[in-house]
Amino acid sequence: MFIRLRKRKLKQGHNKGKYTLDAILVKSYKENGKVKQKFIAYLSTMKERLLYHTDPINREIFQETFLEEIDQKLNALHLDFEDLERIKRNFTERITRQLNEQ
User: What are phi and psi of 14, to 5 degrees?
Assistant: First the structure.
């Protein structure tokens, strides 16, 4: 299992044309030789512009909020401790790298 970040374009309202990042817990499996992902749980969403806010203080607050919500939802799933720690560690490394690149 791992956390997939999906970039989604908003289609309605005053945010039309802007993007959100959805954090989704998925499990990979093979079917007929093809790798597929099974949806396990929705974890969080955040407007992309907030995660990459130009003000460093606001950016840090939005990123912390996003990560805390993901952490809370993962803990509520009552996964095996080793799986939970592996998922969190891998995601933290990946998201930290991705956010620092922006």
Answer: -75, -10
The one-letter amino acid at 80: D
Residue-range domain boundaries for the chain: 2-101
pTM of this prediction exceeds 0.85: no
- Burial of residue 59 (CB within 10 Å: 0-12, 13-18, 19+) is middle
The Cα–Cα gap between 18 and 47 comes to: 8
pLDDT tens per residue across span 26-66: 999 999 999 999 999 999 988 877 777 777 787 788 888 88
CA-based nearest residue to 9, from 38, 50, 39, 48: 48
Cα(16)–Cα(11) distance, integer angstroms: 5
